[in-house]
Structures are given as structure tokens and as C-alpha cells.
Specification:
The complex is a heterodimer of chains A (199) and B (386). Chain A has a 5-stranded mixed β-sheet. Chain A has 6 helices and 7 strands; from the N terminus they run H-H-E-H-E-H-E-H-E-E-E-E-H. Chain A has 199 residues and is α/β, with parallel strands linked by helices. Chain B is mainly beta. Chain B is 14% helix and 44% strand. Chain B is built from 5 helices and 26 strands. Chain B has helices spanning 2-24, 27-40, 128-135, 279-282, 376-381; strands spanning 49-55, 58-64, 68-70, 81-87, 95-107, 119-126, 147-151, 157-159, 164-169, 173-180, 190-202, 209-217, 220-221, 240-241, 253-254, 260-262, 265-267, 270-277, 288-297, 301-308, 313-322, 329-332, 335-343, 349-357, 363-365, 367-374. In chain B, strand 1 (49-55) and strand 2 form a beta hairpin. The model of chain B has no long low-confidence stretch (mean pLDDT 88). Classes of the chains: A alpha/beta (199), B mainly beta (386). The interface between A and B is medium-sized, with 20 and 20 residues.
Chain lengths: 199, 386
């Protein structure tokens, strides 16, 4: 009888310790739930977004995965290489995890599918990376939905150095400046936390 | 022997190339490069620390910065920087109210009791996109500088009036940083780090009234010609710009008349007054109440005022006291009031900065006010934010 009580006591203690440690886990915020809006989903169904393999892509098709979205262009001489230096190791470390990396070019005129394909090959990008191309009008809308700023109206090309992290239900859970080591560390932490989360 | 000679020559050339490259950098980049090397090699402490504790009237986060080297004169905005991104509490998802910020410097310099003289400015930012998206106020994204609070020597202990605060999320990214300054000691060689205290309340324990910051900065038309010659006629008409071609922060732009304007200008010897109308930046759509003003200026400024042009009255004058025996700001007065000041949407407002350049050459100047208004829009919705 005493042994039975002791067993129950141990079980209760274990459950308490586990729930306490869960309580102390990092709470990754929800920045925006706008992608759960059915009108935005319908909008994406009508956008022609192609990846570097010339396949039609819709971010809603990756709802079972985390998504990390950023903006770039192949001939970018300044911040893109620095952003890519941070993205590549994160993507490589997560090749077997449920996360997809979506990179939209803001220069679709120069960055044809073949240019994006060569870019992906040059980076030795895995299957978890998609380099995406759509028209300029769509790009503006897509950038604003991902809370990102781009400018590609004339010869001045500009995009934020942020990467946007979405969870499996398409909620935006974080924006991270890839030019900041502190923020890259936060991104890696948040990917690990969200990968553990069940849908 | 010939092989070693080649290696020595090669190393010599590489070393010479590095020295030439180093001295071709701007002072700011040179100091930044030096800081990176000293931190990467751990010759100086590269890490920050953070401790959160409960106080008698709320909470405080004590942060200590990485260590910097002061090895020469660093004019305003030219010294090495230290900067950190962090979350106040990543294991909570609650609204916190920032109620104050303090900063102090620690040096091994002989003038230890004057360590704060080596603070150029302290900036506390948040991520505008993340912050306002979470608050449901996306129309406020990217409309102004992202600073929440800026401190300068002369006023390093900042507090909002009792009952007011700036709301942030416990797990929201915030950025804190400072830049070293050394205006007086040319033969310096010492280390410096900084202690910061962020004072805050937790919303679940105490609900405060929200404040919203609007940044008012003096922007002046400048002469785009490279060599600007001051005359009695033009001296207060157009200024000479510190950075004529602007920089990546977009410090220079055009006003409505199509004139190039700058927020950093050169001041010739003597007394000068500079004015800048910022009514359009305020863009008031209703009567608002101003509860806190924090001013920012460079040495040799003697005052900066917020003036109601329509009512022809000074709403607040920030007196600036300069040291008498050395270059630097001893004191800048700020405004803090529970009752506040009213500003009207049909009034025009300007900043007026007085400068007395008592040095023997041109100096660099700027002037701004961080204006904290009662945020009636956020107050209506903040209890519904999850």
C-alpha cells in the first residue's frame, strides 16, 4: 500500500516537473494572423508564382511546414550576399525538418527562371529552398502581406533584410533582420521552438 | 634564404596594404573595425549581460554592455558603438509598460567621476513592424524614426510622468545601444562599458496610460555647392551640410520647395538661431496632450524650444548648459507632467535652437525633441490586445 502511494507520488512529481518546465519554455509571439483570412488565401490562388524549377507555387500548399520568407535579387551587390550567408547554414541544418525557405526575387525582369535555377545550383540549395518569381504588381502585394518593404519601380532596387517566419497554420511568428547576429540567433531559437509545436 | 625573403616581403606588403586600407576608412568605420577585432579576439569583453529584478515600485532590467576602447578623440557620432537586440522576458507573452531608462558609463580613466562624458547618446528602439503589427496599428509602421527613447549626456535619467508608460510586449524585440564620445582627452587609452536600467511595470499588475512618441527634428535647407561661404545675408538662410550627399539613413531629403534639407549642419563661430517648422510631421488630427519632452542637441547648443507659431508662445524651452572648462553638455532640461500641454491641429509648431559656438572653428550641430503624447487611440484598444 505504501509502495503504491509512493508510486503515485513519484508520478505526480514527474508530471509537475514536466508541466513546470513546459511553462518556462519560450513563448514565441504571434505577429499577425492575416494569412488565415480566406480572402487572402483566394488571392494567392490567383497569383502566378513560379519557383526556380518552373513549378507553380502557392505558400498555402506548405501549410504543414514552417515557412521562412525573404526578398532578394540575384545581382544584388550589397545586403543579399550577407543575408544569404546566414540563410544557407540555417537551411542546410534544417534539410530534414518541416520547414521550407521561400525567397522572392524583386527583380523578375532580370531574374528569369533559368537565372534563379543557376543561382540555386550555385548555392547547392536543397529541396527545402524555393527561389520564387512573380510579376512586379504581385510582388508589392506579397511583400506587404509579409510585412516587408520592397522598391523595384525604377533602377533603384530595395528590399528589407528581414526574414519572416510562419508557423504551420500560416501565422507570422517573427521577423528577423538577417544582418544582425543577435536576430539570427533569435530566429534559430524560434525555429527550434516552433518545430516542436504540434499543429 | 631567398624563400624566407620572399615570405617576409609578402607579409610586409600585406601588412602595408592593411594599414593603408585601415587609414582610408572614415573614423566611424575605423572605430567599428577596431571594435570588431577586439571583440572577436576577446581582448575586450564582447558580451552583454541582463538581469531582471523586482523593485519597490515595479521591475527593472539591468543591462551591462560589452567593453569599448577609447584611444583618441571621438567627435559626436564618430566613436565605436555597442548594440544589443534582446527580449525583456521571452517566457511571457504579456504587455509591459516601459516607465524609464537610465544610463551610466564605467571607465578606468583618471576622470572616473566624469565617465558619463564619454556617452554620445543612448538609443532604445523597438522593431516598428513587429510592435505595431502586434498592436493592430500597421498605419504607424515606418512613418518615423524607430527610437522609443534617446538619452544624451546632460540628461541620462529618463522617467515618464507617474501613471504613464510606453507599452511593449514582454517577448518583443527591443534594441539598446550607445556610442562612445571623447571630446576632450586626445592622449586617451582606456576601456569603457555602460550600465543601463530599463524600468517597467507589468500590465497584469498595473495598467498605465499609453504614450506615443513623435519625433521632431530641425531640418534646414543647405547649400548644395561643395564650398559654402557664409556671409551676413545668408548665414541663417541656408546652412552648410555635414554630409552633403546624405547617407543610407536618409538624413538628407527635399522640402516642399524642392530645396535640399539636412538634419546635420555646420555652425560657424558665434551666436546663431535655427528654426524648423514641423507641423506637417506632427499631422495632428485632434487636440492632443503632451506629457513628456526629451531634447537632444550637440555641444555648444544653448537651448532648444517648442514654439506654438499660431499662438506666438513658447510651450517648453529646454535649457542646455555647456561645461565652462571643456567641451560637452553638463545639463539638458526636460519636460514631464501628469497634466500635460495641449497641442491643436489648426496650430503651426516649430523647433527653435540657439547655438553659441565659442570654439575657434566650425562645429557640427543637430537638434531634436522626442515628444510623448497621450495615446488615446491605443488606450481604447489595448485591453483587447491578446
Amino acid at each position: 500500500m505504501i509502495l503504491l502511494r509512493l508510486k503515485y507520488l513519484i508520478i505526480i512529481l514527474c508530471v509537475s516537473v514536466i508541466s513546470c518546465s513546459e511553462h518556462k519554455q519560450k513563448k514565441t509571439p504571434t505577429i499577425s494572423s492575416k494569412f488565415q483570412n480566406s480572402e487572402i488565401k483566394d488571392e494567392f490562388d490567383n497569383l502566378d508564382i513560379f519557383n526556380h524549377l518552373n513549378e507553380l507555387v502557392n505558400p498555402y500548399n506548405f501549410q504543414n511546414k514552417l515557412q521562412l520568407v525573404n526578398f532578394f535579387f540575384v545581382s544584388c551587390p550589397t545586403i543579399c550576399p550577407a543575408m544569404e550567408n546566414e540563410l544557407t547554414p540555417i537551411a542546410n541544418a534544417n534539410r530534414d525538418n518541416d520547414i521550407i525557405f521561400l525567397s522572392f526575387t524583386i527583380n523578375p525582369e532580370q531574374d528569369s527562371i533559368s537565372v534563379l535555377n543557376a543561382y540555386a545550383k550555385n548555392l547547392k540549395a536543397g529541396k527545402n529552398r524555393q527561389f520564387l518569381r512573380t510579376n512586379k504588381k504581385n510582388l508589392k502585394r506579397i511583400a506587404s502581406l509579409f510585412l516587408s518593404q520592397i522598391k523595384n519601380d525604377d533602377e533603384l532596387f530595395y528590399h528589407t533584410s528581414y526574414a519572416v517566419l510562419l508557423d504551420r497554420s500560416m501565422k507570422i511568428r517573427g521577423l528577423y533582420d538577417l544582418l544582425s547576429k543577435d536576430e539570427v540567433n533569435l530566429l534559430e531559437e524560434d525555429i527550434a521552438v516552433l518545430l516542436k509545436d504540434d499543429v | 634564404m631567398a624563400k624566407y625573403k620572399k615570405i617576409i616581403i609578402l607579409f610586409g606588403l600585406m601588412f602595408s596594404g592593411l594599414i593603408i586600407f585601415y587609414y582610408s576608412l572614415t573614423p566611424l568605420r575605423r572605430n567599428s573595425a577596431k571594435r570588431r577585432i577586439l571583440h572577436a579576439t576577446h581582448i575586450l569583453e564582447p558580451d552583454w549581460s541582463k538581469v531582471i529584478s523586482k523593485t519597490s515600485d515595479g521591475y527593472q532590467a539591468d543591462l551591462t554592455s560589452s567593453t569599448l576602447l577609447v584611444d583618441g578623440i571621438f567627435p559626436s557620432m564618430k566613436g565605436p558603438t555597442t548594440f544589443r537586440t534582446f527580449l525583456l522576458e521571452d517566457k511571457e507573452d504579456e504587455i509591459y509598460w516601459i516607465t524609464g531608462l537610465e544610463a551610466k558609463a564605467n571607465t578606468k580613466h583618471e576622470t572616473q567621476n566624469e565617465s558619463d562624458d564619454f556617452i554620445c547618446h543612448v538609443n532604445l528602439y523597438h522593431s516598428e513592424v513587429e510592435h505595431f503589427a502586434r498592436m493592430g496599428m500597421v498605419d504607424r509602421i515606418n512613418i518615423q524614426v524607430p527610437q522609443l527613447i534617446t538619452l544624451t549626456k546632460g540628461d541620462l535619467d529618463f522617467n515618464f510622468p507617474e501613471g504613464f508608460g510606453y507599452p511593449i510586449f514582454s517577448n518583443e524585440k527591443i534594441f539598446l545601444g550607445t556610442q562612445a564620445l571623447n571630446l576632450n582627452y586626445s592622449n586617451s587609452f582606456f576601456t569603457i562599458n555602460y550600465d543601463f536600467k530599463i524600468k517597467f511595470q507589468k500590465n497584469k499588475e498595473r495598467r498605465l496610460k499609453p504614450l506615443y512618441m513623435r519625433y521632431a527634428v530641425l531640418v534646414l535647407p543647405y547649400n548644395v555647392k561643395d564650398e559654402f561661404v557664409y556671409t551676413d545675408e545668408n548665414i541663417n538662410n541656408k546652412v552648410s551640410c555635414v554630409i552633403p550627399k546624405g547617407n543610407h539613413h536618409g538624413l538628407n531629403s527635399l522640402n516642399e520647395e524642392g530645396e535640399a534639407i539636412t538634419a546635420f549642419w555646420k555652425v560657424p563661430i558665434g551666436k546663431h538661431t535655427y528654426r524648423s517648422n514641423f507641423t506637417k510631421i506632427l499631422a495632428l488630427d485632434t487636440i492632443v496632450r503632451l506629457h513628456k519632452i526629451n531634447s537632444h542637441a550637440h555641444p555648444y547648443a544653448t537651448s532648444i524650444s517648442l514654439r506654438d507659431i499660431t499662438a506666438d508662445s513658447i510651450l517648453f524651452k529646454s535649457d542646455i548648459i555647456n561645461y565652462k572648462n571643456k567641451i560637452g553638455l553638463d545639463k539638458i532640461t526636460s519636460y514631464s507632467s501628469v497634466d500635460g500641454l495641449e497641442l491643436f491641429p489648426d496650430h503651426e509648431y516649430e523647433l527653435v535652437e540657439e547655438v553659441n559656438n565659442t570654439s575657434d572653428s566650425e562645429i557640427e550641430m543637430m537638434g531634436s525633441m522626442f515628444l510623448y503624447f497621450y495615446d488615446y487611440k491605443l488606450d481604447k484598444i489595448i485591453d483587447t490586445i491578446k
